[in-house]
Amino acid sequence: MKQFATLFAAIDQSTKTTVKVAALADYFRQAPEEDRLWTVALFSGRRPKRAVTTTRLREWAAEVADLPLWLFEESYSVVGDLAETIALILPPNPSVDNRSLTFWINALRGLADVDEARRKIFVLEAWQQLGGAERFLFNKLLTGGFRVGVSQKLMTRALAKATGKPEAELAHRLMGNWHPDEVSWHSLIEAEDASADASRPYPFYLAYALEDGPNTLDDPLNWRAEWKWDGIRGQLILRDGNYFVWSRGEELMTDRFPELARAIDHLPPGTVLDGELLVWPMDAEKPFSFNALQKRIGRKTVPKKLLAEAPVVLHAYDLLEWEGVDLRSRPFAERRGLLEQATAALPRDAPVRLSPQLAFDTWDDLATLRSGAREAHAEGLMLKRADSPYLAGRKKGDWWKWKLEPLTIDAVMIYAQAGSGRRANLFTDFTFAVWNGNDLVPFTKAYSGLTDAEFRQITAWVCKNTQQRFGPVRQVTPHHVFEIAFEGIQASPRHKSGVALRFPRMKRWRQDKPLQEANTLDDLNEMLRIYG
Amino acid sequence: MTQTGVLTFTDKGIYCPSGDFYIDPWRPVPRALITHGHADHARSGMGRYLATHAALPVMRHRLGEINAEGIAYGEVRRIGGANVSFHPAGHVPGSAQIRVEVAGEVFVASGDYKTTDDGFSEAFEPVKCHHFITESTFGLPVFNWQPQARVADEINTWWADCAAQGKTAFLGAYALGKAQRLLSMLDPEIGPILTHTAVENTNVVLRKQGYKLPATVLAGPDIAPKDHPSALVLSPPSALGSQWARKFGPSESAFASGWMALRGVRRRRAGDRGFVISDHADWQGLICAIRDTGAENIYVTHGYTDVFTRFLNDAGWNAQVVPTQFEGENLDSGDAA
């Protein structure tokens, strides 16, 4: 584990991407091939199957540390990471382990075949033998979720450096279904004829937000506009008579959307579409809210009733592959033309629809269109250059998202709670209220939007203005008004205020605003009436 | 507020009715006993101050003209109906726990403390008492400090690496206490040690008192970084990344604090390195200190008060949370290290 721990330390200790990339590239040049392969797998979200439940891990760690379980849980809530909490809470051990990453991964996978008593013996021994970063990394392997400050983009760049292959090609090679058991370093990274799996998706092209509007862009004639839908981005792959649905997070979601299978009846094999998954029944004028879609995402298998109530369609906006040919280097206008042809003959009840383009001549026209986005149940607009290729990852220049301004309301902070992980010693989680007569009614929580300096300032204030404590939650003197921004509002009988907000965050700390001038429950209900 | 006879907890601070004095008050009072010179414990505006001889020079430096009197560690003084004495807290040079005895009942207000001997501050001494007021800055079992020599190795290795790469090593630490402790851990063979004005001001005061510190060069506004290759610069955290720091060209920055034990906090600081070193007791340190007092009644102040108090109660102590305005080791403001 030593070599992998050294790599991890180099990555974790630096905030400079050049340093991280150099450390990774070094590792990819020097480490044993199977360790390299597993490292690529881990850093691209693949992991050994979880051999032990986190419940057991917590119990065992508390037992070894001779601490009550509640105290372990309290510590975990501050640290914010289970693997790290366990590593910290066990007695320190300065030793270094020379066994390879692959050794440990295989040992963990061997646990699948033994009973729990033996698993426990193995884990406890490993905790005893490993110290510091190695123990933390072992726990990460145990608990899964290897997010250690290396994005896939960064890893791909390092791979390109180490192998001399183009980044975009590597990004594509690393997509989709592969597992270190079934591929070799050579077949995954180096082989000329990458005999790809039929399900392998293309890397998504992601847009940056257009903060200041489109006036900084060139001639509107060079641009195409579409609604920016409030669904989830998906790639529908039709190859070899099968269909595959991938989320932007590179999760294979085929089974969650059985209705998309009928796409095979209408579109030829060798077709890959990029679009938005939306709940949109055939006769509805507009898509349902994101809430409806959330019910679908949450289910691995979909009951018939839900399938009928919340049918999902793909609103296609790009064609990445047609007749088995990769179209990504062609101009967007050309891909769009082919997409329109391909979808022209689809019946009304097909699970794929063409996402319309919006006609406009001037940026002012477009601004007018954008102001109708909420009415159309869209989040705003997408702007794409007519001549843009389909790039990999988030790139500036050719694609922009121009979202609506969020809804806002001025609210009073009434409770505060300390954060965890990065924010372990700051008050960052707040509950906000609006006026109802002389009472303050809580209606939302928010955690983000303030600068570190503002969080420090409010933390100092909370310490001095705590009225009452409820465990980790502090009731504070009602004094500070914050402007809360949110994307949507829904009726919710579960909440005291009767409403639930979508993606609430703190837009501004209104230190200029007196307490009495915060908004009221009536204001909130009015928003619910208009936008709910 | 808790009423306990010998010491009571008021909105001005810890008060002794028998002696009519306060300990580390946060509002002006006629008579204040001060545990140590950090800003959240030694505030201005008190009528009279009493602190250890070793703590006074820094307090005078920071608070200006004050009506203050010194006391030796272990010396017993009668104030009204109370017998008062100061005992080393191991937190920073001159820091003390304050023992207050009235009619045979003994309270100890420990201020901030650290139980391991850092070889620089006067080492912590357990004081037997019935009632112990403890901090809980790092009162969670995830905080377990490494031996100081190991951390010193880590820091010196990092400094030597920086020097080898032609980079200036910036080490951020609070100006009183932590900075001088780090100075005592650095290996001057690696290169020159430069100090920010805020750090050097405290160095001057402490050197005059007889504390041994290695040679340092003041990195004032006229400093020519080129004249000091392989330097390590010791500065308050707030000066890291400032215009002054940028003068030094290629550099790496590190931060020394107990909070660096948490990966999330380390990453939030966004420096290059974090070294885990604190002038507060770790989990075991807190528990050992409490056990060694023999006290049955524990009052828990600044830090993870709720969790630590629950733990103590479960373990058989009679513990309660006492709200104070002390900050402990606050990463982002103040200078209590």
Largest sheet features of chain B: 7 strands, mixed
Mean model confidence by pLDDT of chain B: 92
Pair with the biggest interface: A-B, 42 and 33 residues
Distance between the termini of chain B: 28 Å
Please count the helical segments of chain A. Answer: 19
Q: What is CATH's topology name of the largest domain in chain A?
A: D-amino Acid Aminotransferase, Chain A, domain 1
Average pLDDT across residues of chain A?
A: 91
Instruction: Round the Cα radius of gyration of chain B to an integer and report it.
Output: 20 Å
Would you list the SSEs of chain B in sequence order as H and E?
A: EEEEEHEEEEEEHEHEHEEHEHEHEHE
Main β-sheet of chain A: number of strands, strand sense, barrel status? 7 strands, antiparallel
Total strand segments of chain A: 22
Low-confidence segments of chain B: 333-337
Determine the fraction of residues in helical runs of chain A and give it as a percent range.
Answer: 25-40%
Can you tell me the CATH superfamily of the largest domain in chain B?
Ribonuclease Z/Hydroxyacylglutathione hydrolase-like
Considering DSSP H and I runs of 4 or more, what fraction of the residues of chain B is helical? Answer: 10-25%
Shape category of chain B: globular
**Helix and strand composition category of chain A:** alpha+beta
CATH architectural designation of the largest domain in chain A: 2-Layer Sandwich
Strand order of the largest sheet of chain B: 7-8-9-10-11-18-19
GO molecular function (chain B): RNA endonuclease activity
Protein name (chain B): Putative mRNA 3-end processing factor
InterPro entries (chain B): MBL, RibonucZ/Hydroxyglut_hydro, Xnuc_lig_assoc
Organism (chain B): Sulfitobacter mediterraneus
